[in-house]
Amino acid sequence: MTKLFPDAYFHIGGDEVEGTHWAQSPAIQNFISENKLRNKNGLQAYFNKRVQAMLKKYEKIMIGWEEILDEIDENLIINSDAIIQSWKSRQATVNA
């Protein structure tokens, strides 16, 4: 994907993650348990942190909607060089 988008920035989205199918998947529930993640938001945070590391290898700056910060554990916080696009409220912008 990075070859298709030569810009320095790469938007991963990250909003509107429903999670119903994750909740119904024994494999996903096992992964959440084995990795000591709290819930679907923890799973998304785990994914986001890995994506950010991959993008960094290609010298890309990750952009995502503010939901990528929802209910994340301390060890899953993304690096501060990510750009967060906030749309819910002014307070959400401050928090981001």
From TrEMBL:
| Top enzyme category | hydrolase
Taxonomically, what lineage is the organism? Eukaryota, Metazoa, Spiralia, Gnathifera, Rotifera
Q: What is its EC number?
A: 3.2.1.52
- Name a biological process GO annotation: glycosaminoglycan metabolic process
**Record-linked InterPro entries:** Beta_hexosaminidase_sua/sub, GH, Glyco_hydro_20_cat
Q: Which residues form the Glycoside hydrolase family 20 catalytic domain?
A: 1-91
Q: What is this protein called?
A: beta-N-acetylhexosaminidase
Q: Which domain of life is it from?
A: Eukaryota
